Amino acid sequence: MHQPTKADLRAAALARRDALDPAFRIEAALTLAETFPLDVIPVAGKVVSGFLPIQSEIDVRPLMDRLRRAGARLALPAFPDRKGPMIFRELVRGADLVPMGFGTYGPGPEAAELDPDILLTPLAAFDAMGNRIGYGKGHYDQALARLDALSRRIAVGIAFSCQEVDAVPHEPHDRRLNFVLTDTGFRTF
């Protein structure tokens, strides 16, 4: 029997995510904000990177607002050189956001570049071992490898529960998640 490839698993998980009801998506985004465990992952005084949702991703903006109110300094991914590595820039209320490519926006070059302590990590699929499938470009794996070389970071996968798969084929360069937060709860790996 043929094992599904990352591309197969990604396509199936994204199709399930795309099919979710819009009203459910709103409730799921609010559930994330309510269930993020500040006692397990304290954020006061920490830099937390979030992301602005693209396509059918879960919306983490309510969660990011809760983390900001809990004392986190927020950042978003940025791609100063379209081919270069992903960096993170400070997200400040009221600051202009500029196109980053990939259908998303982020703080412009005037924003401070930050190294996040905690990364809210988007994904296409994940498994019960904390392995994730991204969108195939390796941006988060590379960013986590760079940041982990300075000091180990916390990677929190953010997804709908329908994106879980039985097993993600993983390679040595793939960085496992520390936690995953979905519409059905929080899990530690």
Q: Based on CA inertia axes, which overall geometry fits?
A: globular
How many beta-strand runs? 11
What's the CATH topology label?
Rossmann fold
Number of contiguous helices: 4
- Can you name the CATH architecture? 3-Layer(aba) Sandwich
**Unreliable sequence segments:** none
User: What can be said about the biggest beta sheet?
Assistant: 7 strands, mixed
Describe the protein's architecture and organization.
The protein is an alpha/beta fold and 189 residues long. It has a single domain (6-107, 115-188), classed as 3-Layer(aba) Sandwich (Rossmann fold). It is 25% helix and 23% strand. The protein has four helices and eleven strands; from the N terminus they run ααβαβββββββαβββ. The protein has helices spanning 6-18, 22-35, 61-69, 139-150, and strands spanning 47-49, 73-78, 87-90, 97-101, 104-107, 118-122, 125-126, 132-133, 154-158, 179-182, 185-188. It has a seven-stranded mixed sheet with strand order 3-2-1-6-9-10-11, sandwiched between helices. The protein has a two-stranded antiparallel ribbon with strand order 4-5. Strands 7-8 form a two-stranded antiparallel sheet. Helix 2 (22-35) runs parallel beside helix 3 (61-69). The longest helix has 14 residues, at 22-35. The two termini are 29 Å apart. The model has no long low-confidence stretch (mean pLDDT 93). Its cofactor is Mg(2+). It is an enzyme of class 6 (ligase). It holds the Pfam family 5-FTHF_cyc-lig. Substrate binds at residues 52, 57. It catalyses: (6S)-5-formyl-5,6,7,8-tetrahydrofolate + ATP = (6R)-5,10-methenyltetrahydrofolate + ADP + phosphate.
